[in-house]
Design goal:
This protein is an alpha+beta fold. About 40% of the residues lie in helices and about 20% in strands. The chain folds into 3 domains: about 5-125, no CATH class; about 175-235; about 240-340, no CATH class. Helix 1 packs parallel to helix 6, helix 1 packs across helix 7 (about 150-185) and helix 8 (about 240-245) runs antiparallel to helix 9 (about 250-260). GO terms for molecular function: hydrolase activity. This is Metal-dependent hydrolase.
Length: about 350
Amino acid sequence: MDPLTHLSSGLMGGLAARRWFPEAKFLVPACLFAAWMPDMDIFFGDGPEFNLLYHRGVSTSFFGTFFLALALAGLYKLVSRRTPFVRAAALFYALALTHVWLDLITTYGTQLLAPFSNHRFALDGAFIIDPVFTLTTLALILAAWLIKKHRHAIALTGMAWFFLYPLANMGMGAVLQNVYAHRLDAEGVAYEHVHVTPDALSPRFWKVVVTAGPDYLLDTMDLFGDREPAAPLRVRRADKTFLRKLGEQQSMFATYAWFTKWPYVEETDTPEGRRLVFHDLRFTSTNPVMAWYYRGKQPPFTLTAQLDKSGRLTAWSYEGGVRTQDNNGDGGFRTGIEEKLQ
């Protein structure tokens, strides 16, 4: 989830907890930090592969957030000596777990059991940036701040909102999944599975991913109604075994096989051999807003391989989700890295 929503959960939590910590000093700033601190892993990244492997890893797991909460409570005790350590640690752990929840409800997911397991858990409760979710949260914070008489009750309602809204979206997604499956049945389209998840500007737009033999079908459901519904986008599913095989030459490909949920590939012949461009449907959309935003651009988390005629990897490049400084000397920016193999 975006940093603003994470910080909002800390501010809301601090306002809600104020009644239970009347002696606490600087409680709200401490709660803000507690709600953000699982994202500290962004300061320890060492390239795109490291970020894929470890961002939303141990610092956003049940275990990592527990030790972070203990450390923060120990530091907070130096500032607010009258606040019991155990109570402060419990509050900070609850807020850190709220951060974990807000990451869990996006399709990017998080490694809940790290460092004991690198399995990435993900629910379909919200798009990574959700204006309805965030603006409602900010409105509740403003109300709690202005209406002091009912601040505690409003803030508790706000904390409940962080859980009720995603759960409602999950229920809606399950309903839409059945609706879309019935539509495919009526049209006689063969498929194995239908998956519906919130897309940009949800709850209006919803992403539909259909597993259909060697392909994926990508579609958008518009709850306001499709005036001219287009045919779903059909893409070829990528073979994760093949990605892992490429990973024997360059580990990034094995990492990508582990990271992706719905990988697909675009293949073109070149004079040297083949060019393979791998994407993940989690980060591709036919939503009109996202289609406009990425027009003429590669979607994030794109991995490209150049193979020679014998199938050996000769060069690769990666477009990540974070813009990085280019080394071309002109002050421009690019995303990701490029590498030629000898």
